[in-house]
Amino acid sequence: MSTSPLRLVTSDAREVQLPSGSTLPAVESESQLRGLLAGLSGVDAVGAEARAAKLATRSLKKTTKLAALDLAISMVDLTTLEGADTPGRVTSLCTKALHPDPSDASVPSVAAVCVYPDLVAHARHVLGTSSVKVAAVATSFPSGRASLNVKLLDVREAVTAGADEIDMVIDRGAFLSGRLGQVFDEVVAVKEACDGAPLKVILETGELVTYDNVRRASWIAMLAGADFIKTSTGKVSVSSTLPAALVMLEAVRDFAEATGALVGVKVAGGIRSSKDALRYLVVVNETTGSAWLTPDRFRFGASSLLNDLLMQRLKQRSGAYVRADEFSGD
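^ that's the sequence the OP posted. Answer follows.
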């Protein structure tokens, strides 16, 4: 990294000063990483929560809502991450991912099916050459507590089996203990092991305690090469929240302004209703703009959300509610 001063106050003060012509900063030591993170402004927790709450009250006109529902469907990573998962369960999930509502061909396919690494090959077979990606959780999901060699083997096996995308988890214990260089180095190593497959880095924001930590973890992941930063595994009591997502979206916005690199955001855990999904899309639009309103830049990690999106879509078109069980339970 250049020895030129880095001033990354951003967010509201908006002072972003990187070396002239820089793209993605090269972090060559933990001291450089800490110096860069020290240049970030603190997060106004009250302000972030108030802004998220205000944006959550926005209402959408019918035509906008219809388009937003279709967009949300196309952004879903349809997920099954249970110890009891079977090939049959994954087949059902893949079938639904391809054709969410078999009675309506205008409903878009979802973005991806997300499974454990040992089920990647089966998902790849069922999805074939379709546009639906196979995403695999890796690096000792959901705890992230394993040796780096084990984590990298997890990733390589998933990629070899046909995974298009990898969702990794950071070692929150290392982060909270101040071993920031270790967290950075692990993301770098996993990114290399992905062999070109996009990498989503799960921060587990509910365990990071403060919004300042969420912001710092976001920057560490992005500087290390993450293609997406993701809120949660969905396996802890506090998963995705609008304020945490807002902080992450501000981070990717500032990172793009500073480096020119566009990093996506994935929200996961506890997002079950169309109302929640549309609130997230409003926050995306108001924070990062339309460039992030695409499955290439924003995703929902969910299992039950899709049925509610389908139900609300039909309600908007027909004027009548249907039961959620009108659609497949998979």
